[in-house]
């Protein structure tokens, strides 16, 4: 901006209350000074580089405001976890399934996992069957993002919520 633009002889000038065109760098700086604004380089790779006459501090403020608004609109993805044992009985399974449905309806991702303690690792198939059964029963609320995968003593599966209209 302003005196930091040195490597060029002429620039394409844009901005409010300015006739758009190619000007010598000194003339562009003079125009900016007359309006008590800053000459800011917008597109340095263009030939000639594009500069705009604006209030730089106000420009930075507006830019921060836009970024903050975009950040506020961005959806924050929450991940809820549900833990099963390899031999979880039917009542516990139904209870945890109700919670899973609620989490998916609230728009949170679901991380369902079977935790194998000690020698229960021999029941890997039971754990996988349990997770696949859960995925099948939650089909109308979400879709499986990652199929059951064994990581250490845990078999993990991710389910993402379906988009609600």
Automatic annotation (TrEMBL):
Domain Translation initiation factor 3 C-terminal: 77-162
Gene Ontology molecular function: ribosome binding; translation initiation factor activity
One GO-annotated biological process of the protein: ribosome disassembly
Any one cellular-component term (Gene Ontology): cytosol
Keyword Glycoprotein: no
Keywords assigned: Cytoplasm, Initiation factor, Protein biosynthesis
A Pfam family the protein falls into: IF3_C
Chief place where the protein resides: cytoplasm
Assembly behavior: Monomer.
Family, per entry: Belongs to the IF-3 family.
Known role: IF-3 binds to the 30S ribosomal subunit and shifts the equilibrium between 70S ribosomes and their 50S and 30S subunits in favor of the free subunits, thus enhancing the availability of 30S subunits on which protein synthesis initiation begins.
NCBIfam families recorded: infC
UniProt-recorded name of the protein: Translation initiation factor IF-3
Organism listed in the record: Tenacibaculum aiptasiae
């Amino acid at each position: 901006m302003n005196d930091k633009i040195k490597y060029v002889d002429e620039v394409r000038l844009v901005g409010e209350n300015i006739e758009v065109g190619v000007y010598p760098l000194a003339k562009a700086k003079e125009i900016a000074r007359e309006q008590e604004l800053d000459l800011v380089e917008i597109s340095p790779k263009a030939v000639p580089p594009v500069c705009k006459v604006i209030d730089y501090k106000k420009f930075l403020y507006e830019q921060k405001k836009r970024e903050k608004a975009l950040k506020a609109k961005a959806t924050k993805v929450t991940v809820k976890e549900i833990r099963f044992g390899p031999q979880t009985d039917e009542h516990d399974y139904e209870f945890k399934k109700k919670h899973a449905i609620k989490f998916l309806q609230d728009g949170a991702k679901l991380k369902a996992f079977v935790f194998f303690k000690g020698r229960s690792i021999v029941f890997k198939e039971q754990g996988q069957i349990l997770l696949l059964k859960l995925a099948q029963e939650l089909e109308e609320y979400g879709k499986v993002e990652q199929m059951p995968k064994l990581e250490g003593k845990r078999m993990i599966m991710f389910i993402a919520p379906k988009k609600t209209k």
